């Protein structure tokens, strides 16, 4: 991704108003003001195509999957598996059997930590994380650390929110078995140098998990090109529904890994003496899966494939550059996270005003921003703050909405300071 | 409701929440320290937003709160609430503190008006209830109610010797 500092020219080919019309919720008002939704990094809004695909699935083709011998079940299974194939193509995975549907990215990471972690970790082995990880890429590793006697090493971040490849080189060593990093920081927007990290990790035989929740939203992801071993993301940040997440893993890893949960769907044979497992991905999808959310995610991918994603990425970079230029013009506002290589996520603080108070005042102007620790308390410690306000920009946001944020911040200053 | 009327209400709600007294206490909190030779202490925590505070008190054998302080990090509402709480209760009895807790809790939750809240506390504290009623602006902001009540829950934990209070259930 191009550096945010070099503000890209505005994408002429990208009709953001047409995109906005695809998202029904953007037409509503909040507290009598037009909705200015700047919290897509927490959960993105849904296009009509996703809403309709899910309604259609419920209204016309709903049944449990992989079970019934009847028409509807066959249709639901076909649609569910078609969604898997859409995900495969979207991230350029080798085979659809490498795509495991989970209830979210959190479950995907927990699956890898519990299953692969138990397989690979011995006492003294090292798990390498960074200081900017989301709690969901910290706590699962702590759980498996405590069960295996492994050790967690944390790669520090620089003052601007970037992570140096040198810092990874120092942290990754012969004892490293797993490196788990965000593709893009949910707080700072930093894009991590994942290809380099993979290279370093593979030199010592360690596997790499990428938490792609924020990464896949802002750029096209090719897991073959990235070279990583596991890539996890959620549907709801990718303009799809919540309740669906994806774990991509190399097939040889999925084959070697023990099941994460037991139940229906994941077995080959069951007797009270012993059971045998189905092959991946079914081995990791115990119980009735999130059928309609998977179909919704497939529809979100179709939607994204139908727009010019390069132009969308350029549009988001333009919004980020514009916000990074305009926000500091509000007296007392300081940007948090100014790395060269950033996605359209911007944290900030205002001197003398707590982020929660800011968010409350902004909300009454119709402006939705996230305030708090963003499920990254260790990062807040490093940054020396207890909370930040965060504006995140999706494909449907506009420069006028950045202006609305700035105007609301001026109002907040008047009211709070 | 017309958009314009809604806008007016919103401005009024915000002004009711961020009254001068709240902002002043938020910026210059009283008793934002640790009590020396405290007889009890409790940590308050809102894990959802990261707000943290420590309430310390020195309670005399006769049940008087000889000293009371609250120190921590949080939003204007929680800091102001903590500051006003210590100001109102320093020198009062533990029993009065419990009564005032109920009064403030009911005000913030929208369960009672100022008159009803006053009936819960000794007459001498009626003025304090008037002042603390400033916190009731959170009624119009449901997600902010916990900001106002966290210091008070932490105070109760402190007085009960429970050591900690949280806005969420933890294990």
Q: What would a concise description of this structure say?
A:
The complex is a heterodimer of chains A (417) and B (171). Chain A has 417 residues and is α/β, with parallel strands linked by helices. Chain A has 15 helices and 17 strands.
Structure description:
The complex is a heterodimer of chains A (about 425) and B (about 170). By secondary structure, chain A is α/β, with parallel strands linked by helices. Chain A has helices at about 15-20, 50-60, 70-90, 105-120, 140-150, 165-170, 195-205, 215-220, 225, 250-255, 290-305, 310-325, 355-365, 375-385, 400-415, and strands spanning about 30, 35, 35, 100, 125-130, 150-155, 175-180, 205-210, 230-235, 245-250, 265-270, 275, 335, 345-350, 365-370, 370, 390. Chain A has a seven-stranded mixed β-sheet with strand order 4-10-9-8-7-5-6, sandwiched between helices. Chain A has a four-stranded antiparallel β-sheet with strand order 13-14-17-16, covered by helices on one side. In chain A, helix 2 (about 50-60) runs antiparallel to helix 11, helix 3 crosses helix 11 and helix 4 (about 105-120) packs parallel to helix 5. By secondary structure, chain B is an alpha+beta fold. In chain B, strand 2 and strand 3 (about 65-75) form a beta hairpin. In chain B, helix 3 packs across helix 7 and helix 4 packs antiparallel against helix 7. The interface of A and B includes residues 352, 354 and 415 of A.
């Amino acid at each position: 991704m191009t550096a945010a500092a070099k503000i890209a020219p505005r994408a002429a080919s990208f009709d953001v108003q047409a995109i906005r019309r695809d998202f029904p919720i953007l037409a509503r008002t909040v507290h009598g003001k037009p909705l200015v939704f700047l919290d897509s990094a927490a959960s993105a809004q849904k296009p009509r195509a996703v809403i309709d695909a899910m309604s259609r699935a419920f209204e016309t083709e709903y049944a449990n999957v992989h079970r019934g011998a009847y028409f509807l079940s066959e249709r639901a299974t076909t649609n569910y598996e078609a969604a898997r194939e859409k995900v495969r193509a979207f991230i350029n995975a080798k085979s659809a059997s490498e795509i495991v549907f989970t209830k979210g990215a959190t479950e995907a990471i927990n699956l890898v930590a519990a299953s692969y972690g138990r397989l690979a970790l011995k006492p003294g082995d090292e798990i390498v994380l960074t200081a900017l990880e989301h709690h969901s890429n910290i706590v699962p590793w702590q759980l498996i650390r405590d069960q295996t006697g492994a050790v967690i090493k944390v790669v520090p971040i620089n003052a601007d929110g970037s992570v140096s490849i040198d810092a990874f080189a120092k942290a990754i060593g012969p004892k490293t078995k797993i490196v788990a990093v965000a593709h893009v920081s949910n707080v700072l927007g930093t894009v991590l140098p994942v290809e380099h990290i993979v290279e370093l990790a593979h030199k010592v035989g360690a596997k790499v998990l990428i938490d792609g929740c924020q990464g896949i939203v802002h750029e096209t992801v090719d897991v073959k090109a990235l070279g990583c071993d596991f890539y996890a993301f959620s549907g709801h940040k990718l303009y799809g529904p919540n309740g669906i997440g994806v774990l991509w893993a190399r097939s040889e890893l999925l084959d070697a890994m023990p099941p994460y949960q037991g139940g229906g769907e994941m077995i080959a044979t069951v007797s009270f003496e012993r059971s045998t497992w189905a092959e991946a991905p079914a081995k990791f999808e115990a119980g009735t899966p999130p059928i309609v959310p998977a179909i919704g995610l497939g529809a979100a991918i179709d939607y994204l494939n139908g727009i010019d994603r390069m132009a969308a990425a350029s549009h988001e970079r333009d919004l980020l550059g514009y916000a990074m230029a305009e926000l500091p013009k509000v007296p007392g506002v300081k940007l948090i996270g100014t790395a060269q290589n950033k996605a359209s996520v911007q944290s900030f603080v205002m001197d003398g005003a707590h982020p929660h108070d800011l968010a409350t005042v902004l909300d009454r102007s119709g402006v939705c921003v996230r305030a708090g620790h963003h499920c990254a308390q260790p990062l807040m410690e490093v940054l020396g703050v207890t909370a930040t306000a965060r504006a995140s920009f999706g494909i449907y946001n506009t420069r006028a909405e950045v202006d609305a944020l700035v105007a609301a911040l001026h109002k907040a200053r008047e009211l709070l300071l | 409701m017309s958009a314009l009327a809604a806008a007016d209400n919103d401005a009024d709600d915000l002004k009711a929440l961020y009254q001068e007294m709240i902002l002043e206490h938020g910026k210059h909190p009283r008793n934002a320290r640790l009590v020396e030779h405290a007889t009890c202490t409790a940590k308050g925590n809102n894990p959802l937003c990261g707000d943290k505070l420590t309430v310390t008190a020195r309670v005399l054998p006769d049940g008087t709160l000889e000293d009371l302080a609250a120190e921590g990090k949080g939003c204007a509402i929680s800091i102001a609430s903590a500051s006003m709480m210590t100001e109102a209760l320093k020198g009062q009895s533990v029993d009065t503190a419990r009564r005032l807790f109920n009064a403030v809790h009911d005000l913030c939750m929208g369960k009672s008006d100022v008159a009803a809240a006053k009936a819960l506390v000794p007459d001498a504290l009626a003025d304090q209830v008037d002042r603390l009623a400033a916190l009731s602006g959170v009624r119009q902001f449901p997600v902010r109610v916990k900001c106002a009540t966290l210091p008070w829950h932490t105070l109760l934990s402190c007085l009960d010797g429970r050591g900690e209070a949280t806005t969420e259930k933890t294990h």
